[in-house]
Amino acid sequence: HSNIAEPLEFQFGIEYSPTFAHGFRGAPFVAINSQLFEEYNFSGNLNLMAGWQWRSAETNRLLRIGMQYFNGKSSQYAFFDEDEELLGLGLWVDF
User: Fold this and answer.
1) What pLDDT is stored for residue 4 in this prediction?
2) What is the pLDDT of residue 6?
3) Which of 27, 41, 63, 95 has the fewest C-beta atoms lying within 10 Å of its C-beta?
4) Based on the number of CB atoms within 10 Å of its own CB, is 17 exposed (0-12), middle (13-18) or buried (19 or more)?
5) Residues 45, 69 contacting (CB under 8 angstroms)
6) Which residue would you say has higher pLDDT here, 82 or 92?
7) What beta strand segments (E) does 1-95 contain?
8) How does DSSP classify residue 71?
9) Residues 12-25 pLDDT 10s
10) Eight-state DSSP code of residue 20
11) Pairwise CA distance, residues 26 & 93, whole Å
12) Higher pLDDT pick, 41 / 30
């Protein structure tokens, strides 16, 4: 493969995240996203997230805790030709 970026890239995914206020109990969420690149013969990245979330009825803000798994090309563009596999825990706050 060359060091020149090819023009085609596809990104797609799906997410389950209830939009109603959950109260103290919360609710599960799950998301999957993939990004395919022509310069890698349409292979690329896979990102999975899953966990538990709480949505505020007053402000619609969202608090999530969960796990994230990533497998694919480095997101650090200086290392674009390297593969990475990451597993992590997260706390996300959406305003």
Assistant:
1) 67
2) 75
3) 95
4) middle
5) no
6) 92
7) 9-16, 27-37, 43-55, 62-73, 83-94
8) E
9) 999 999 988 888 89
10) S
11) 14
12) 30
Cβ contact 62:70 at 8 Å: no
pLDDT exceeding 90 applies to what percent of the chain? 58
What does R_g of the chain's alpha carbons equal in angstroms? 17
What tokens appear for 19 in the block? 């939009």
Residues written for the chain: 95
Residue type at position 61 = R
Determine the longest span between alpha carbons in the chain, in angstroms: 53
Q: What pTM was estimated for this model as a whole?
A: 0.80
Closest to 47 in 3D by CA, of 16, 76, 14, 3: 14
The SS3 of residue 25 is helix
Q: Which residue has the tokens 């609710």?
A: 27
> Which letter, b or e, does each residue of 58-93 get, where b requires 16 or more Cβ atoms within 10 Å of its Cβ?
eeeebebebebebebbeeeeeeeeeeeeeeeeeeee
pLDDT the model gives residue 3: 62
- SS3 (DSSP) at 77: helix
